[in-house]
UniProtKB/TrEMBL annotation:
Its main location: cytoplasm. InterPro entries: ATP_PFK, ATP_PFK_prok-type, Phosphofructokinase_CS, Phosphofructokinase_dom, PKF_sf. This is 6-phosphofructokinase. Residues 4-283 form the Phosphofructokinase domain. Its cofactor is Mg(2+). Pathway: Carbohydrate degradation; glycolysis; D-glyceraldehyde 3-phosphate and glycerone phosphate from D-glucose: step 3/4. PROSITE patterns: PHOSPHOFRUCTOKINASE. Its EC number is 2.7.1.11. GO terms for biological process: canonical glycolysis; fructose 1,6-bisphosphate metabolic process; fructose 6-phosphate metabolic process. GO terms for cellular component: 6-phosphofructokinase complex. Pfam families: PFK (PF00365).
């Protein structure tokens, strides 16, 4: 039987969201479903703002960053009246299944919506932060690592020329996946992560020890510290000042910011987005409901939506690498 399948993108946009929309539309066409796209995240549900999606709308889309459906954060949707209104609008529009591409906040919203909307709801993980439990990676994460890595590569050139210390802040909200991978792949000298942060005093002492040890060995060389956002109290200016006070001068802070959310998705994100978009549509009409689709060990899986905000540990092998290759590289 033909079904109306709606998709929306919510929360922080991530490279590969468009690739996922493309896969959803193609899979819907193949199954004889009618795909429609709600605009501006959950705001689209509240304002009944949607467009019909066709193969025309997905042409040349896989390589585009951002999201053709636009994204938003929507306060009204966090309140009961808003969620009820969204559910009523979905029923009025004859939607059988709603696919939500977003992060853990969007999945909390989707879980809330399921109390009032009795059609099918399926989440697809899309965030550069990779902070969603039940999937090895989220759409956009691999591209963001590459963007941060290539930015740090460029910083290294000028840092080397001036033999300076650079502090580079990387996104991740409250998770260190992006910072750790950006630091490992760009051969940073030190990384500060929320999962391993002890205290400002302990981190400061360790950074200074590593700088002195490296300089004793190699002379006056550059030193790059990757700092996950929201970890250091009062941010990079406070860390710069603390280093200056400890006699480490010529320190330059740099916040990479939203550049990490943009750009054409790398192949791993396109493949993940395509796999998960197609898999989500394959579940339409089955008993799978209020689940997120994810990928574990290269296989598609489903996870209850309310389990996706469980804590997700960093990869332990990468943490071991961090210790030997970066933060505890020189014995002192
Ligand atoms: N606890 C919640 N209840 C209902 N809706 C929520 C909740 N948390 C987030 N949302 C909705 O999901 C949107 C996106 O969440 P946000 O945390 O900003 O991004 P992300 O989905 O990328 O984590 C929010 O603007 C809000 O509309
Ligand atoms: O775009 P905003 O509202 O400034 O939000 C920035 C936050 O969004 C992100 O880029 C993505 O986070 P979400 O996917 O959870 O929305 C975080 O890394 C960052 O902390």
């Amino acid at each position: 039987m033909s079904k109306r399948v709606a998709v929306l993108t919510s929360g922080g946009d991530a490279p590969g969201m468009n690739a996922c929309i493309r896969a959803i539309v193609i899979a819907c066409q193949k199954s004889g479903y009618e795909p429609i796209g709600y605009l501006h995240g959950y705001n689209g549900l509240l304002n009944q703002e949607f467009v019909s999606l066709s193969l025309d709308s997905t042409h040349n889309l896989i390589q585009q960053g951002g999201t053709i459906l636009h994204s938003a954060r929507c306060k009204e949707f966090t309140e009961e009246a808003g969620v009820k209104k969204a559910a009523a609008n979905l029923v009025e529009a004859g939607i059988d299944a709603l696919l939500v591409i977003g992060g853990d906040g969007s999945f909390k919203g989707a879980t809330y919506l399921s109390d009032y909307f009795h059609g099918q709801i399926i989440g697809i993980p899309g965030t550069i932060d990779n902070d969603i439990a039940g999937t090895d990676a989220t759409i956009g994460y691999y591209t963001a690592i590459d963007t941060a890595m290539s930015s740090i590569d460029k910083v290294r050139d000028t840092a080397d020329a001036f033999e300076r210390i650079f502090l580079v802040e990387v996104m991740g909200r409250h998770a260190g996946f992006l910072a750790l991978n950006a630091a490992l792949s760009s051969a940073a000298d030190y990384v500060i992560l929320p999962e391993h942060f002890e205290s400002t005093d302990a981190e400061l002492k360790n950074i200074i020890t590593q700088i002195h040890a490296q300089r004793r060995l190699k002379g006056s060389v550059s030193f790059i510290v990757v700092v996950a956002e929201n970890v250091w109290p009062k941010g990079l200016p406070a860390l710069t000042e603390a280093l200056n006070e400890a006699g480490i001068t010529d320190v330059r802070p740099l916040t990479l910011g939203h550049v990490q959310r943009g750009g054409a998705p790398v192949s791993s994100d396109r493949l993940l987005a395509t796999t998960l978009g197609e898999f989500a549509v394959s579940l339409v009409g089955t008993s799978s409901n209020n689940v997120m689709v994810g990928e574990v060990n290269s296989h598609p899986v489903t996870v209850p939506l309310d389990k996706t905000s469980d804590s997700k540990p960093l990869n332990s092998a990468q943490v071991a690498l961090m210790k030997t290759i970066m933060n505890e590289r020189y014995d002192c």
